Amino acid sequence: MTPMSDSGRPIAVSAEVAGALAAGRAVVALESTIISHGFPYPANIECAMETERTVREAGAVPATIAVIGGVPTVGISTEQITHLGTVGAAGVVKASRRDLAVLAARGSDGATTVAGTMLVAAMAGIRVFATGGIGGVHRGAQESFDISADLLELARTPVCVVCAGAKSILDLGLTLEVLETHGVAVLGYKTSEFPAFYTRASGFRVDVRIDSAAEIAAILRAHDALGLTAGTVVANPIPPEYAIDAATLDHWTDAALAEAAAAGVHGKDVTPFLLARLHALSDGETEEANKELVYNNARLAAQIAVELTR
């Protein structure tokens, strides 16, 4: 492991990732909360390994990011992925920006969220990141002020986040309003409509439709040349064969939200609670859809990263 980033911050970078970055090769950052909190064991480990394989197959080097023993680590090993997946949510902290210093001081492990992964990826000099979906403004945020840190990280960290939009359990209209306020471009990949994670449509439009990875890479180059500091969202709809009917999903979501409210679930515990309930209510259909959209995003992110190296 390389003990320090180019920015001088104390992070660890695997030899493979460091070599790829030094040689100007394509690298794609991947988050680790999906391993500890996104899927049950052993599906979580299988998904993580398949996502890395998908990135490699598309011509880029995968860099799964986590906090290991207090050290933000870029390009964790198979053994470390297995550790995060085996210990799971009960023993691994969800690590956003606010958690990194605490974990570092305590020498603890953490699975990085979208926000945490973006921050560490930027420290390492990685421009493209693939995830499932970004966090957003929760329903009822006018009273709760429950807004994901992902949106604020996108406002200040110049990383391109390839995702299947945001989950339909969120207030998608307000999520897009917050991104617009903070100057975050939302690019639709072969779509003019913002996808809603398990479904391809939401009723809300993206800022602009883009039909190739090469054009996305050109936009990122222009973004950097202009000195813009916000992130970029690339909204990549779930493949149609894995999409879930919107009306059915809304029914399951309403039921899960009611259960969360009755149980007093709030804050960062809401999303994993709702995902678990959706998995149960759908007899596993949402889990299969989740995996496939992650692989789809990883493939596109790798294509963009490769185009950036040309």
Quick structural overview:
This protein is 47% helix and 14% strand.
> What is the number of E strands?
11
Shape: globular
Q: Work out the radius of gyration.
A: 18 Å
Q: Runs with pLDDT <50, length 5+? A: none
Number of domains: 2
Sheet with the most strands, sense and barrel status = 11 strands, mixed
Number of helices in the DSSP assignment: 13
Structural write-up:
The structure is a single chain. This protein has 310 residues and is an alpha/beta fold. It has 2 domains: 126 residues, 3-Layer(aba) Sandwich (Indigoidine synthase fold); 182 residues, 3-Layer(aba) Sandwich (Indigoidine synthase fold), CATH 3.40.1790.10. Helices cover 47% and strands 14% of the residues. The chain has 13 helices and 11 strands. Strands 1, 2, 3, 4, 5, 6, 7, 8, 9, 10 and 11 form an 11-stranded mixed beta sheet that branches. A hairpin with a 2-residue loop joins strand 3 and strand 4. The two termini are 27 Å apart. The model has no long low-confidence stretch (mean pLDDT 93).
Offer a few descriptive terms.
310 residues; alpha/beta; Indigoidine synthase fold; 2 domains; eleven-stranded mixed sheet; 13 helices; 14% strand; globular
